[in-house]
TrEMBL record:
Native source species: Limimaricola hongkongensis DSM 17492
Function recorded in the entry: Assembles around the rod to form the L-ring and probably protects the motor/basal body from shearing forces during rotation.
Any one of the GO BP annotations: bacterial-type flagellum-dependent cell motility
GO molecular function: structural molecule activity
Subunit structure: The basal body constitutes a major portion of the flagellar organelle and consists of four rings (L,P,S, and M) mounted on a central rod.
Range of residues in the leader sequence: 1-28
Name assigned to this protein: Flagellar P-ring protein
InterPro entries, per the entry: Flag_FlgI
HAMAP family: FlgI
Family: Belongs to the FlgI family.
Keywords: Bacterial flagellum, Cell projection, Cilium, Flagellum, Periplasm, Signal
Gene name in the database record: flgI
PANTHER family, alphabetized: FLAGELLAR P-RING PERIPLASMIC PROTEIN FLGI, FLAGELLAR P-RING PROTEIN
Localization per record: Bacterial flagellum basal body
């Protein structure tokens, strides 16, 4: 039901009258694959420690990064070069790095994955470097991939005697297809007795709708276990991948809670379609303080005894806008209220303050999240 404004804020009432009332509309149907994932079918994080060589004097300083020096010594000993003293090792073309990657599901031996290389020491840039063979391990300590190759840096850094400029992050780089999978994760879909679908945003209403659409299409077998999990027991285990392909292409109408998200830094306000407010009176006033600073110099007369004195002159002016009340009656959508505030020129920071005050008054029927 559309509401109306009465009171001393006629401009807001006129603005709201010009905005069409929100009419209930069906939410768009989406594929199950866009709001959920199959349990067990996921990526795995990999991490490794390595060295980047070939830098043009932008690598780690060995005095400030002793782990880089130890790594170089260990690498050279494995290659047959040893007995180097600290005075003999003064290179600045090497940097210690952490290498991270995501192992996709069902990755097979010989396939390649992308890696991210991040500086660990005080190197100023990784541009032009090459990553030396680096094993990548999983959470269980097993090696699943090996990375090596020239790196690509998106950012750059330039420095002179009195000025410097940095664009992006030159100490972070990528290697496209820079790691080769050496070990597979054992996982067989055809051996599963049941398939579990995990919703990315748990919701009982959405879980119930997913259960119904699967049962209507497959003739039963789906059960919602909780707000985020739906279990499907296949009748034919010979074609589980085909069953998963059929399930993920089904369309369902997801539900969502009423929520308002505010980014106070940028003044961004995102409002859900289900947000409503109760009857509330709103008053918005403004206080403007203007401070003007002027510097005056008191100069003594010629051939006189005195000192030059700097005398600051400060002028402070306070302007206060007249605060007026406006009463909102009925079940009015919050979107119409915000549109009305915008129509009369209320700033984003003032709108955020009003929404927070309405929430504190208990009239905002939604979750208010500030990020």
């Amino acid at each position: 039901m559309a509401g109306r404004f009465t009171g001393l804020w006629p401009a807001l009432a006129v603005a709201l009258a010009l905005i069409p009332a929100a009419t209930p509309s069906a939410r768009a149907e989406v594929r199950i694959k866009d709001i959920a994932q199959f349990e067990g079918v996921r990526e795995n994080q990999l991490v490794g420690y390595g060295l980047v060589v070939g830098l043009n004097g932008t690598g780690d300083s060995l005095r400030n990064s002793p782990f880089t020096e130890r790594s170089i010594e260990g690498m050279l000993e494995r290659l047959g070069v040893g007995n180097l003293t600290d005075e003999q090792m003064r290179t600045q073309n090497t940097a210690a790095v952490m290498v991270t990657a995501m192992l996709p599901p069902f990755a097979r031996r010989g396939s390649t994955i992308d890696v991210v290389v991040s500086s660990l020491g005080d190197a100023s840039s990784l541009r032009g470097g090459t990553l030396i063979v680096t094993p990548l391990t999983g959470a269980d300590g097993e090696v699943y991939a090996v990375s090596q190759g020239p790196i690509a840096v998106a950012g750059y850094a330039a420095q002179g005697a009195n000025a410097s400029i940095v664009e992006g992050v030159p100490t972070v780089a990528r290697i496209e297809n820079g790691a080769t999978v050496e070990n597979e994760i054992d996982f067989s879909i055809n051996e599963m007795n049941s398939i579990r679908i995990a919703l990315r945003t748990p919701d009982f209403t959405t879980a119930d709708r997913v259960e119904r659409v699967i049962n209507d299409r497959l003739g039963g077998g789906a059960t919602a276990l909780d707000s985020g999990t739906i279990e499907v027991r296949p009748t034919d285990k010979n074609d589980i991948p085909g069953l998963l392909a059929e399930i993920e292409s089904l369309r369902v109408q997801p539900d969502a809670i009423a929520k308002v998200v505010i980014d106070a830094r940028s003044g961004t306000i995102v409002i859900g379609s289900q947000v409503r407010i109760a009857e509330v009176a709103v008053s918005q006033g403004g206080l403007t303080v203007i401070v003007k600073e002027e510097i005056e110099v008191s100069q003594p007369e010629p051939i006189s005894i005195g000192n030059t004195v700097v005398v600051p002159q400060t002028e402070v002016t306070v302007e206060e806008q007249e605060a007026q009340f406006s009463i909102l009656e009925g079940d009015v959508s919050l979107q119409r209220l915000v549109d009305g505030l915008n129509a009369i020129g209320v700033t984003a920071s003032q709108t955020i303050s009003i929404l927070q005050a309405i929430k504190a008054a208990g009239a905002l029927h939604a979750d208010l999240e500030i990020i």
